[in-house]
Amino acid sequence: MAVLSNLSMATISSCLTFYSLSIIFLLTCLVSSSFGELQRFEHPIKEGGSLNFLVVGDWGRKGLYNQSHVAHQMGKIGEKLDIEFVISTGDNFYDNGLTSPNDPLFEESFMNIYTAPSLQKKWYNVLGNHDYRGNVEAQLSPILQQLDSRWVCLRSYVLDADIVDFFFVDTTPFVDKYFTEPGEHTYDWSATSPRKSYIAKHLQEVQTALKESNAKWKIVVAHHPIRTAGHHRDTEELIEQLLPILEEWENGIRNKWRRFKSVEW
Ligand SMILES: *[C@@H]1O[C@H](CO)[C@@H](O)[C@H](O)[C@H]1NC(C)=O
């Protein structure tokens, strides 16, 4: 994706309200029931069962392209909403991810930009296609967490925030064009090869995690949208491979209360 910084905010209590400018993720809200093999993080929420957080994607620009302005507004709304954390939907560092855990971009595009007090919370990240153009392991490195304890980044994982489970999905390896038409870019597929088995294992993990989730709300977070009216269009690979898993799970609990929704702003 090559859009500018996306920002959205979400308030979850008994029902879920989204106010948003732009975002790339799929929202799945359902009732069902623990976890498979995806690594799991827990984030406590406020007494009273409400949760506020911000979602941002396509951001790392050394403050340019209005990144600093968006960061400033995030600081203000983050304070107003008293957010618990920030979710990043990937393309964390333009144009080509990080070169190493010591890449100054981490400081220039993250640490020095999101300085507002309200943003000094955990940042739960996934990777975008631009991140795959760099050294992917750099973004996953514990060194970044030592530099800035807000940073949480894995290829895929589950975040359990009491009333909601977030499923972070690594969508870049699904998309054919990065393999067939890489152009002048090189992608770091080192840990996702062979591609077929990486994808199969990932889908199975998501499937298992969804089935075992007890949370009232379930939100799937990824860089690429499944459906969108945006200029990148639908992601066909996800319609074919990821969507059936979400629908299968939805069908499995058809007799219970359910809601399923895919959103792109
Ligand atoms: C920053 O935002 C302003 C106002 O929306 C816009 O006119 C300008 O083109 C943006 N700058 C960049 C570099 O995108």
Automatic annotation (TrEMBL):
EC assignment: the record states 3.1.3.2
Keywords in alphabetical order, please: Hydrolase, Iron, Membrane, Metal-binding, Signal, Transmembrane, Transmembrane helix
The membrane-spanning stretches of this chain are 6-31
What are the GO MF terms of this UniProt record? acid phosphatase activity; metal ion binding
- Give the Calcineurin-like phosphoesterase domain ranges: 52-239
Q: Which Gene3D superfamilies match?
A: 3.60.21.10
The domain of life is: Eukaryota
Residues noted as binding Fe cation 1 in the record, renumbered to the chain: D58, D91, Y94
Which cofactors does this protein require?
A: Fe cation
What Pfam families does the record point to? Metallophos
Binding-site positions, Fe cation 2: D91, N129, H223
Q: What class of enzyme is it?
A: hydrolase
- Identify the InterPro entries for this entry: Acid_PPase, Calcineurin-like_PHP, Metallo-depent_PP-like, Metallophosphoesterase_PAP
Catalytic reactions on record? a phosphate monoester + H2O = an alcohol + phosphate
Entry cofactor note text? Binds 2 iron ions per subunit.
Q: Return the protein name.
A: acid phosphatase
